[in-house]
Amino acid sequence: MQLKANDIGFRYENGPWLFRGVNLCIEPGEVVGIAGPSGRGKTTLCRILSSYETPLEGSVTFNDAPLPDKGYHPVQMVLQHPEKAVNSRWKMHSILNEGYHPDEELLEILGIEQEWLTRWPHELSGGELQRFCVARALGPNTRFLIADEMTTMLDAITQAQIWQAVMEIAQKREMGIIVVTHEAKLMQRLCDRVIEL
Amino acid sequence: MNTMPKKFPLNHKQWALAKIILAALLLALVIIGGLFLDEGRIVTNLTDRNSPPSLEHLFGTDWLGRDMFTRTIMGLTLSIGVGLIGALGSASIAMFLGMAAATMGKRADRLISWCIDLFLSVPHLVTLILIAFTLGGGFKGIVIGLTLTHWPSLARVIRAEVMQIRSADYVQVSRRMGKSRWWIALHHIVPHVIPQFLVGFMLLFPHVILHEAAVTFIGLGLSPHEPAIGIILSESMKYLSSGMWWLAFFPGLCLLIIVRMFDQIGENIRLLTSSDSNRD
Question: Domain total for chain B?
């Protein structure tokens, strides 16, 4: 059940190599941080690991097999901007139930209130939206969760609340997590090990 | 702060809706009028020729004694019918090609973009006349001509819209949720394109009606015995110099009003459906 990156390299169009020969191996239940200054390709690496982009060199394997092309993806990513990650013409309950049907318990842990479900996305704040995006990504078939600056735009209390919920669920399900954040304290607190890019 | 007492306590969305309903009612009235007006009023009646507008003949009568009000309303109904078919056909072609260009890969996109550019580089009217002439004029010729010539600009708008949505974050998230391309097109892309389609359709209408009138005016459209607006206008041109101004004035004015009505409906639908004004 490992998620492995073997010698991957990537660049946009004909630009310079963003990175080359990156190796990474994550076990289930492990929390790994990716650190590095802005513009080093942290987000791109995350996008490659969750199949949003295909690497130009090397490969990403899950369980020693290539990542599936169809069906529910075992590696889910939560993006930095929740407003862009939801369809503005859908109500919240459709957004929440797009991949699977989250149970009441999960909603409660994440602090999602029932009355939010009947609203439009623009009637909720960024923090509230991000809770939905997290819930949506935590399907029963999610083996690895990639949190790319997941809580950067939230206040400290909401941040702590969301992370606590995610860590709790991850521990229960033996789910691996990749954390990208600029906050050293948060990184230190959450991660078993940190990779410098 | 606005301290003026508001006369009409409606917000701009309610106003838009009110305008749409009003315009739609007027159009419905014209159509119903056209369908139920007595055909007997437009038969030749040589005892009552060339009479100016009066209470009995609101728009006057022509050189054959036909009541111009009845002819105008019937002509408008016919024009709206032609416009409806033409605009619906054009908008459907635009929707299909726009979606296809944006979702079926680079080659399809290049081909369709080329077609759009080709059609846009020639004035509508020229292609329309060519097609209508080739098909031998008449109702069929003009409807097919209108359908085949009015789609390019709307197709371009829809293509751009779909391309933008296709690369949106939530579409990519949806892919990772295991949703198929078709599912995404149907559930994510179509709801965003429907308003463009509706507005585009309503705004095509006036175009189509005016072009229909224009082609009929030069004699390539509907046959002369039908009470189409274009025919009424082209016939009355001959009698303008003899002082019978009402023959061209009222039908022309009515055409203008109808076209404005459709324009209003389209504009207000756009106002109602734009998602950034959802907030009030």
Answer: 1
Q: Could you please report the per-residue DSSP string of B213-233?
A: HHHHHTTSSS-TTS--HHHHH
Instruction: Tell me the CB-side half-sphere exposure of residue B50, using CA atoms within 13 A.
Output: 6
pLDDT at B156: 92
Residues of B in contact with A88 (CB under 8 A): 275
Q: In 3D, which of B252, B224, B198 has the Cα closest to residue B72?
A: B252
- Residue-range domains of chain A with CATH: 3-196 (3.40.50.300)
What's the CA gap between A155 and A127, in Å, rounded? 8
- How many CB atoms neighbour CB A161 within 10 A? 18
Q: Which residue of B has its CA nearest to A75?
A: B176
Residue A78 to chain B, least CA–CA distance (Å): 9
In order of A148, B9, B10, B11, the CA distances from B6 in angstroms are 49, 6, 9, 11
The verdict on a CB contact (< 8 Å) between B278 and A79 is no
Residue numbers in chain A where pLDDT is lower than 70: none
Residue of chain A minimizing CA distance to B172: A52
User: What phi, psi does B227 have (nearest 5°)?
Assistant: -80, 55
Residue B58 lies in a domain: no
Q: Is residue B187 part of a domain?
A: yes
CATH number of the domain that B218 lies in? 1.10.3720.10
* B172–A52 C-beta distance less than 8 A: yes
Helix (H) / strand (E) containing A55: none
**Nearest residue of A to residue B169, measured between CA atoms:** A85
Tell me whether residue B278 is in a domain. no
Crossing angle of helices B229-240 and B68-103, rounded to 10°: 130
Residue showing tokens 């069929």: B140
Question: Number of C-alpha atoms within 13 angstroms, CB side, residue B211?
Answer: 28
Distance from CA of B162 to the nearest CA of A (A): 14
Chain-centre distance for alpha carbon B121: 21
Tens-place pLDDT, residues B207-266: 888 888 888 888 887 777 777 887 888 888 888 788 788 888 888 898 888 888 888 888
The domain in which residue B245 lies consists of 16-29+68-273
CA distance A68 to B96: 31
First to last CA, chain A: 24
Least confident segment among A193-197, B168-172, B213-217, B273-277: B273-277
**Residue B38 within a domain:** no
Assigned token pair, B163: 């391309």
